[in-house]
Design a protein that fits this description.
Keywords: Membrane, Transmembrane, Transmembrane helix. Strands 1, 4, 5, 6 and 7 form a 5-stranded mixed beta sheet that branches. The protein has a two-stranded antiparallel ribbon with strand order 2-3. By secondary structure, it is an alpha+beta fold. It is elongated and about 95 Å long. It contains 16 helices and 7 strands.
Length: 485
């Protein structure tokens, strides 16, 4: 308090108003999600175990994607700003010890209540990581996409993750545009740590923010009704997925901001351009690989799987060399002259005779064929390098951002955190027991299973016959149409 200038009626301090990360997206469930993705990649040859891990990870990421849709569609814009006259406080005031972010050297501020949704970083970590893993799995893994139904399911989940990633990035781009928040306090009662909203009362807000602030601090009985030491206009805001009592406010200090950094590491850790560029590059490469599957182009690249490419590397290289040799091999001089309508007895071969194969249609066609195959091969190999690096870089970057958002609401000891791990463990145990059902089944159960399998086999044969008949009918219609033309 300034003894020379007298005690001001109230002081103003910059504040941070935020909804903390929901318990479902705290550190333990997020790390469990990362572990499930890794386990899905490692155990994809086991079948049932990979289905358990991948299904649990996909449903968790799907929940986060749906939340991003709701967050973007119901984004709460900051309220219209209103001026508030405040007591003048000099820059060298002693109140800065109790109020590190005190507002000085001004007679008025603009109040525009808004709040941060820290779930934005958490859901972005989940949906983007899920998309960066699910898309390469669909491109590379034959085991996880060996049938149409499973492949269709991957397409659905990839579309959901892509939409969720776009919504999460759009919402994240809106967050830095939120205005500065303020809290109003008595100079003798500085805020102690974090304060939460106990529910906004209509009587706290009168005609304008200026009137509300001055009436609250001019009337001690009204100030006692706040239930808190300071008056926080941001408690007037709300989020569609949050309870009003979960909004928190804290004094903005250097500790609440990102720590300072310099040089190259500042650009790497705090700039979104590098991470977003990697994500876009990874997206383009993997989408090209998916498109390559459906093109009618016949390539010498047998598959998009690294194991297949490594086994057939010699055949691929041999095919490239053979096609080049066939393209540049020039025909005999007699054949060239006969094609041009001349006789070979008086013509002399010149240097153009050796360069002529390079300008033929056959060489250009072979050159384009080899160039496209080389681009496809380079894209596959480059994608296998870029995709894992992008996943690791993004997870490290987003977890660093979440770490700076503040501590978790719950510790790993609380049931809200370890319950997810226990549920996955119970699911794995249940799936493992079901895989042993034939070993522990009785003869009656086996007989019933045989009968059901026979019925199912008859149904599959009927479906196959129907598909074959439809295919033959379609081919006959095409032949009739071609004959009519």
């Amino acid at each position: 308090m300034d003894n020379a200038a007298g005690a001001p009626l109230f002081v103003v301090s910059e504040a941070l108003c935020y909804y903390p990360i929901s318990t479902i997206y705290n550190s333990c469930p997020r790390y469990l999600f990362y572990a499930l993705l890794i386990a899905s990649c490692i155990t994809r040859w086991t079948g049932w175990l990979a289905d358990v891990f991948l299904g649990a990870a996909a449903t968790y990421a799907g929940t986060a994607a749906i939340q991003t849709f709701i967050m973007v569609s119901s984004f709460q814009k900051p309220q219209d700003p209103g001026p508030v006259a405040i007591p003048w406080i000099s820059a060298n005031t002693s109140l800065i010890k109790e109020f590190p972010s005190i507002v000085t050297e001004t007679n008025s501020i603009q109040v525009s209540p808004a709040s941060l949704e820290l779930d934005a970083d958490a859901v972005m970590a989940i949906v983007v990581t899920g998309y960066l893993v699910f898309l390469p799995l669909q491109c590379w893994s034959r085991i996880l996409t060996h049938d149409r139904a499973r492949n269709l399911l991957f397409y659905v989940w990839n579309a959901l993750m892509l939409a969720g990633s776009i919504c999460a990035l759009v919402y994240s781009a809106r967050t830095p545009k939120l205005p500065i928040q303020y809290m109003f306090c008595y100079p003798d009662y500085p805020p102690v740590g974090d304060s939460s909203n106990d529910g906004w009362q209509a009587s706290w807000r009168t005609s304008t923010w200026n009137t509300s602030v001055w009436d609250t601090f001019s009337n001690v009985s009204q100030w006692n009704q706040l239930g808190d030491i300071c008056f926080n206009p941001c408690f007037n805001t709300s989020q569609i997925l949050r309870q009003a009592t979960s909004l928190h406010a804290v004094t903005a200090t250097d500790d609440t901001d990102l720590p300072a950094s310099r040089g190259f590491w500042r650009n790497v850790l705090y700039s979104k351009r590098y991470i977003y560029s990697l994500i876009i590059l990874c997206l383009i490469l993997n989408c090209l690989l998916l498109t390559y599957r459906f093109l009618p182009y016949r390539s010498r690249i047998p598959s998009a799987q690294i194991v297949v490419l490594w086994k057939d590397r010699r055949n691929i290289w041999k095919g490239f060399k053979e096609e080049i040799q066939m393209a540049i091999s020039s025909p005999s001089p007699s054949q060239d002259l006969l094609e041009e309508g001349r006789t070979p007895n008086t013509e002399r071969r010149s240097c153009l005779t050796f360069l002529r194969p390079i300008f033929t249609r056959r060489f250009l066609k072979a050159f384009l064929h080899i160039s496209v195959d080389a681009v496809i091969l380079f894209g596959i190999v480059f994608s296998m390098i870029v995709s894992p690096f992008t996943i690791v870089a993004f997870v490290a970057w987003i977890e660093f951002q979440i770490y700076n958002d503040g501590p978790s609401q719950e510790s790993p000891r609380q049931v809200g955190q370890w319950a997810y791990l226990v549920s996955i463990a119970l699911l794995v145990i249940s799936a493992g027991i079901l895989t042993l059902k034939y070993e522990i089944a009785s003869s009656t159960e086996l007989q019933n299973e045989i009968e059901q399998t026979k019925k199912h086999l008859e149904y599959l044969e009927e479906r196959k016959g129907a598909c074959s008949g439809a295919h033959r009918l379609e081919m006959r219609d095409l032949r009739d149409h071609s004959k009519g033309n």
